[in-house]
Design goal:
Length: about 180
């Protein structure tokens, strides 16, 4: 190809592709900001029967913050173009590995514990109802009860679990993975 043709193609290519409606971002979203402008998040309640009293509030605020940081959508109180609602449905702390005591008078102890949290999410997309979904998202973190108690690490574990769950929610809703 001649240099003139390459320069002409380089100048015309933005015009050829300017009709695309879907906008991509560095976070991987496929949101058409010409159609979808806002999102709302109803309070997520802790229906699990476990965990700290403020866990539902913390999850709600973390979800709002994540979407505000990673999209151009406006957070509205109610009736956003994208709507999130749900509840924390599971909070369990279970042993994963057992350490056998060498002393017959001492019981076996858990060598590793797993904190698992599940969140049920109802996602409504008013601009594309085919994307609506109800789904449960869960994640876990392990800790060693021989060196630390759940009370000492609970807040950090919950934050890490929420971060993973929120990333999964984001990916499943606006990144369409």
């Amino acid at each position: 190809m001649s240099k003139k043709l390459l320069i002409l193609l380089g100048l015309l290519s933005p015009l050829l592709f300017s009709g695309c409606k879907v906008e991509y971002s560095f976070t991987g979203t496929t949101i058409d900001y010409n159609v979808t402008n806002s999102f709302s998040v109803a309070n997520f309640f802790n229906d699990s029967g476990g965990g700290p009293a403020n866990m539902g509030q913390n999850f709600t605020e973390s979800l709002k913050d994540y979407f505000q940081r990673n999209t151009q959508l406006e957070l509205v109180q109610n009736n956003g173009d994208l709507q999130f609602e749900g509840a924390i449905s599971r909070y369990t702390n279970t042993p994963q590995a057992t350490v056998t005591s060498t002393d017959p008078n001492l019981p076996d102890r858990a060598g590793q514990m797993r904190l698992t949290i599940a969140v049920d999410v109802n996602y409504i997309n008013l601009t594309n109802e085919e994307e609506n979904m109800e789904r449960s998202f869960s994640f876990y973190q392990d800790y060693d009860p021989r060196t630390t108690s759940l009370l000492e690490v609970e807040s950090d574990l919950i934050d890490e679990i929420f971060e993973a769950i929120i990333q999964d929610i984001f990916t499943s809703t606006v990144a369409n993975w």
